[in-house]
Amino acid sequence: VERSFVLLKPDAVRRGLVGAVLARFEAKGLRIVALELRHVTGELADQHYAEHVDRDFYPPLRKFVTSGPSVALIVEGDQAIEVVRALNGATDGRKAAPGTIRGDYSLSNRENLVHGSDSPESAAREIALWFPDLG
Ligand code: ATP
């Protein structure tokens, strides 16, 4: 089994979509092994998005991700990392396929509801960062 770190970003909480999004992961067969409501600080955002901090889109992304509570979780299952990314859909909600979380619920390339680790290395890094007791 594999673990992936998932973040339901502030737009998911604000729009009342936490239950709907979690239901998709659960229905797929992924098991939730940790879950916490977290108000992300600028410092945590900078660490989480370390590879993006110098990009033009980062300042508004930082503002967005710190704008209200998020739900941080770890899911576990066979090929969890790839499965989560398939369920999430393409980064840009306007282009994401219908049937995916972003494709069904997002019309934005920034406010795209959900983050999922993109490799085993990022999953390990992100789990250690967000859930140091479980790392
Ligand atoms: P995530 O890492 O959140 O699962 P991703 O891997 O699909 O998403 P990345 O390229 O890693 O996308 O970008 C991280 C996040 O930065 C995106 O989810 C989105 O919120 C934001 N982002 C990426 N590209 C842009 C952009 N061009 N304009 C605005 N926001 C962007």
Please give the structural blueprint.
Blueprint: E1 2-8, H1 10-14, H2 18-28, E2 31-39, H3 42-48, H4 58-65, E3 69-77, H5 80-88, H6 101-105, E4 114-116, H7 120-130
Antiparallel strand pairs: 1-3, 1-4, 2-3
The protein binds adenosine-5'-triphosphate.
Note down, in words, how this protein is organized.
Helix content is 41%, strand content 21%. It has 135 residues and is of the alpha+beta class. The protein has seven helices and four strands, in the order E-H-H-E-H-H-E-H-H-E-H. A four-stranded antiparallel β-sheet has the order 2-3-1-4. It has helices at residues 10-14, 18-28, 42-48, 58-65, 80-88, 101-105, 120-130; strands spanning 2-8, 31-39, 69-77, 114-116. Bound molecules: adenosine-5'-triphosphate. Belongs to the NDK family. The active site is at 115 (pros-phosphohistidine intermediate). Major role in the synthesis of nucleoside triphosphates other than ATP. The ATP gamma phosphate is transferred to the NDP beta phosphate via a ping-pong mechanism, using a phosphorylated active-site intermediate. One of its GO terms (cellular component) is cytoplasm. Its EC number is 2.7.4.6.
Give, in order, the helices and strands. Answer: EHHEHHEHHEH
Strand content: 15-25%
> How many DSSP-defined strands?
4
Question: What does the average pLDDT come to?
Answer: 97
Q: Give the names of the bound compounds.
A: adenosine-5'-triphosphate
Q: Gap between N and C termini, in Å?
A: 16 Å
Shape: globular
GO molecular function: ATP binding; metal ion binding; nucleoside diphosphate kinase activity
Protein name: Nucleoside diphosphate kinase
EC number: 2.7.4.6
Cofactor: Mg(2+)
